[in-house]
Amino acid sequence: DHHGELTWGAAQAGVAAGVGLAHQASLFEGNLDSLVLIVAVWVNPSADNEEEVFANNRDATLAALQQARDAGPDLNQALAAMNNPSNPYFRTN
Known about the structure:
With 93 residues, the chain is mostly helical.
């Protein structure tokens, strides 16, 4: 139950706070109604501190939005990663 509360509470609130900070920092200009933000939230099952989960998600979201504004990874790097996706729980053959 606590892990669910961290995921649906602190982590998602952290994402919202990161988006708010990005907005305050004027990272994106123009018609914001034309932008879509898709976020996957993952919380380590051993996490137990909601303030740390909140701060981590806030900071990660802001960093990701800053990277997106600054043209993030090169398109060729992104396409190469897309063709060979992996994470600690999944790896293509």
